[in-house]
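Quick one, tokens below:
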């Protein structure tokens, strides 16, 4: 049985505007795939289609050989970090992280220790984003989709997370997009550009820089 998270033949239109046109994407364990494109190019739409929170005009999603009829979230192997915060504001951090499998979280993580008794709504934007990323990582998903994970984070935190994600890529497949392409480009092993509704793989960081400088 073939492994990997694979999406094929994705078509999405809003009226006469084609957002995604016959998109194909595959991510295997060991991959960190960067999806690059300007604002409005359809990256978030593609992620929602893969995960199953948006219905495309046409799409085909397969996870480790299993066809997903109604979204990848149903198989329990795919974790999705959306752009918007997802921790319930009224819950304390200790309540949220107690939902993880026992022993999954690093209980000595300095941010987690510092805000353990706080409610999610009391955290700064940077603290909240960091913990949401770590929660997704510790949840045990085999494949991760991360949409704008570094938004609002200080450079030192971004650098820390880059190292953490690289380490986890040995056992996970990761798809990631961020408006600051430089934060993503240095950690990925595959570069994909979404433009004009089409997704194409590009060969190098140098080629990516050239596209963004056009």
């Amino acid at each position: 049985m073939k492994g990997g998270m694979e999406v094929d033949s994705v078509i999405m239109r809003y009226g006469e505007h084609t957002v995604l046109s016959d998109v194909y994407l595959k991510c295997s364990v060991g991959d960190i795939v960067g999806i690059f494109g300007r604002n409005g190019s359809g990256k978030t739409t593609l992620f929602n289609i893969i995960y199953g929170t948006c219905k495309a005009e046409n799409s085909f999603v397969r996870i480790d050989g299993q066809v997903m009829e109604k979204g990848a979230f149903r198989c329990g192997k795919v974790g999705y970090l959306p752009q918007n915060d997802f921790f319930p504001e009224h819950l304390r951090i200790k309540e949220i992280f107690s939902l993880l499998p026992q022993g999954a979280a690093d209980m000595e993580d300095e941010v987690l220790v510092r805000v353990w008794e706080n409610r999610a709504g009391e955290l700064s934007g940077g603290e909240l984003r960091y913990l949401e990323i770590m929660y997704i990582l510790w949840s045990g998903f085999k494949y991760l989709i991360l949409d704008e994970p570094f938004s609002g984070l200080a450079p030192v935190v971004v650098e820390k997370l880059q190292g953490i994600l690289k380490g986890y890529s040995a056992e996970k497949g990761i798809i990631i997009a961020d408006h600051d392409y430089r934060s993503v480009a240095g950690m990925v092993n595959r570069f994909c550009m979404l433009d004009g509704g089409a997704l194409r793989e590009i060969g190098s960081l140098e080629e990516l820089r050239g596209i963004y400088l056009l």
